[in-house]
Amino acid sequence: MGQTPSPPGEALDRLTGRIGEPASVRLLSDRRGSRVWKVQGLLGAVALKANNPEGDDASDKAAEMAQEDDHLLRLTEAGALSPDYRVDAGVWQGGRWLAVRWVDGAPLWRALALARGAEGDRASVRPWLLGIASTWAQHLARMHAADWAHADVQPTNTLVARDGRAAVIDYALACGPHNDRRVPYRGALTHTTAPEIATAILATSTDIHVQAQPAADIWSLGASLFWCWTGHRPVAYDDGADRTEKLRAIAKGSTTAIGVVRPWRFPALEEAVAACPSTDPADRPTARELAAAW
After folding, report:
1. What pLDDT does 2 receive?
2. How far is CA 81 from CA 22, 85, 117, 168, 246, in A?
3. SS3 state of residue 106
4. What is the dihedral of CA 61, 140, 48, 192, to 10 degrees?
5. What's the pLDDT tens digit per position in 51-90?
6. Least crowded by CB within 10 Å, which of 119, 149, 205, 293?
7. What is the pTM of this model?
């Protein structure tokens, strides 16, 4: 077995002044050219990201890291993001690193495990589900009010705290006004890609930036809730299909009716989720409307 990669020393040196002497460092993820550690200090904890300098796309991942840092600064300035979320960022001998406040919570798929079964049909689960959906929509509404789209709304980028509040993470792919991008946006997780984004990706070359709009986030929000509550993706396609085939299926705009696959009846959630995947972006509810409805 290979040695577990350590976080950049340059980052740890800088973070000591913010979170105290690191008491523990744990590698959380090492894939697709990026690494993430949880660094716990005496004064707090951060999620520390860095590009893998040995990866084939090391320069692209370093550029993506710098892009996310730029997004965090601009979103904070616009009032769409809490000032305490971004902790620090910088360069190291292998590229770029970024530290953000540690957010305690379970990824949406794991958090909704109980709700996916018939045993989830209970009085205590219903307001909990609506609270997750509402707080998630509130986060997006603040971004949308500043003319930003998160552009990577999906289950792994949504953490659910013990009190049932949702937190949104990972802003590397966000699309904002007057964006001088280092890395063009070409969609995110295929399963939660909006039809208009799928159509634009299929119609353009890989070096062309596709500007996501807030309405695409709404499609992705509905798709994520649909998927994690029912256990079924909203667009049916073969798991073995390549990304292009899946995008073509999504671009057609046809989705599975939530009433066919829901684990139990819950109109307050179903009706709003069913409105999100409208093929025409103009027909989708806004994040503010969803937050109020839930």
Report:
1. 67
2. 26, 7, 34, 10, 33
3. strand
4. -50
5. 999 877 767 899 999 999 999 999 999 999 999 999 999 9
6. 205
7. 0.95
Backbone angles phi, psi at 65, to 5 degrees: -65, -45
Write out the two tokens for 231: 């256990």
**Of 239, 237, 240, 262, which Cα lies nearest the Cα of 251?**
237
Question: How high does pLDDT run on average in the chain?
Answer: 95
Q: Which domains are seen in the chain, by residue range? A: 9-101 (3.30.200.20), 106-293 (1.10.510.10)
CA nearest neighbour of 160 among 128, 129, 137, 132: 132
DSSP 253: T
**C-alpha to C-alpha distance for 117 and 3, rounded to whole angstroms:** 40
CA–CA distances in Å: residue 178 to residues 71, 147, 196, 211, 277: 12, 10, 21, 11, 27
Residue showing tokens 């049909």: 121
Residue 62 burial (CB count, 10 A):
24
Lowest mean per-residue pLDDT among 73-87, 167-181, 222-236: 167-181
Per-residue model confidence as pLDDT tens digits over 119-140: 999 999 999 999 999 999 999 9
CB-based contacts of 66, cutoff 8 Å, min separation 6 = 89, 96, 182
β-sheet bridge partners, residue 101: 46
Q: Could you write out the DSSP letters of every residue in 12-68?
A: HHHHHHHH-SEEEEEEEEEETTEEEEEEEESS-EEEEEEE-TTSTTHHHHHHHHHHH
d(CA 206, CA 186): 7
- Helix count and strand count (H, E) for the chain: 10, 8
Distance between start and end Cα atoms, the chain: 48
